[in-house]
Amino acid sequence: MEIFLAEKMGFCFGVKRTVDIAMKIIENKEKNVVTFGPIIHNEDLTDYLKKNGINYVNSLTDIDVEKTEKVIIRTHGAKKEVIDTIKKMGIKVIDGTCPYVMRVHRIVEKLSKENYPILIIGNKDHPEIIGVIGYIQGDVPYFVVKNVEEVEELRKQGKFDKFKKIGIVTQTTEKIDKVRKIVNYLMDFIPEVRYFKTICYATDENQQAIHKLAPMVDIVIVIGGKHSSNTIKLYEIAKSYCKRTYHIQNEKDLRIEWFKHDDKVGITAGASTPDWVIKNVIDKIKEFDQILGGKEIL
């Protein structure tokens, strides 16, 4: 087998920044620190942090005010009111929100103050989107949609009938092709459409890299958390080119029956996937190659 790595994959700037904050706390042997929600969508990393004293809470009521000294806000961010409430508890907040997510917060806050209805393209249940909604000011209408079909349905319901303008932002891990369809559709009937490209550059690069790699190989392994939005997007792109595409969390999910001894194997990884997980996957595929009778991969 031959292994080909995507030109861009793995930890993005925002994730690395937040993980480095947590690792520094472990290195300094600080105690009584939690993260608000899993710091990133990767169970291998969250398990590592937990073993080293940094657990996570899912709500304000889960925070032990008596014992907790610091709360790290996850990479995906949180509602402004959540951060303010933690501070009022007398607990220090370390804001690990990705700077690209922070930019979305600033945009929706400004748009809402200027009375723009807001369309958010993404998954309404994703923590990033929940946090973004928390920065909308006042009572301006807003909608969260996953695709152009949902926008069309809203139009049929008359939700856009009185709109002369609208502001659009996206989840930082969205696919640009989907976004273009939605923006173009809205431009047909709303006079002023303000679109802000809020897709993270690293997400964009990772997606472009798998567009390039997937058609060149026989099998694609996509590494990342099962709930990682950007990893799922990479899987969907790869699958559109290569039927033998598999989404795994770590090397334990690999199955030897997926592979053939003469395969060209493509590997990519989501923005929340640590380097050590990628290395373990590569090593495991090399073991499979030996078992299947192929030559050793250098």
Q: What number of structural domains do the residues give?
A: 3
Give the strand order, joined by hyphens, for the main sheet: 1-12-10-11
Distance between the termini: 10 Å
Mean pLDDT comes to 94
Instruction: Write down the secondary-structure element order.
Output: EHEHEEHEHEHEHEHEHEHEEH
Please write the CATH class name of the largest domain: Alpha Beta
Please report the number of helical segments.
10
How much helicity do the residues have? 25-40%
Q: For this structure, what is the CATH homologous superfamily of the largest domain? A: 4-hydroxy-3-methylbut-2-enyl diphosphate reductase, catalytic domain
CATH fold name of the largest domain: Cobalt-precorrin-4 Transmethylase, domain 1
* Major sheet: 4 strands, parallel
| Number of DSSP E strands | 12
Q: Unreliable runs, pLDDT <50, ≥5 residues?
A: none
Rg to the nearest angstrom?
Answer: 21 Å
Say what oligomer this is.
single chain
Percent range for β-strand residues: 15-25%
Q: What structural class should be given to the helix and strand makeup? A: alpha/beta
CATH architecture of the largest domain: 3-Layer(aba) Sandwich
Draw up the topology in text.
Elements (H helix, E strand, L loop, with lengths): L1 E4 L7 H15 L5 E4 L6 H9 L3 E3 L12 E4 L6 H9 L3 E4 L3 H15 L4 E4 L5 H7 L8 E4 L2 H9 L8 E6 L5 H12 L4 E4 L5 H13 L5 E5 L5 H13 L3 E4 L15 E6 L5 H17 L7
Parallel strand pairs: 1-12, 2-3, 2-4, 4-5, 6-7, 6-8, 8-9, 10-11, 10-12
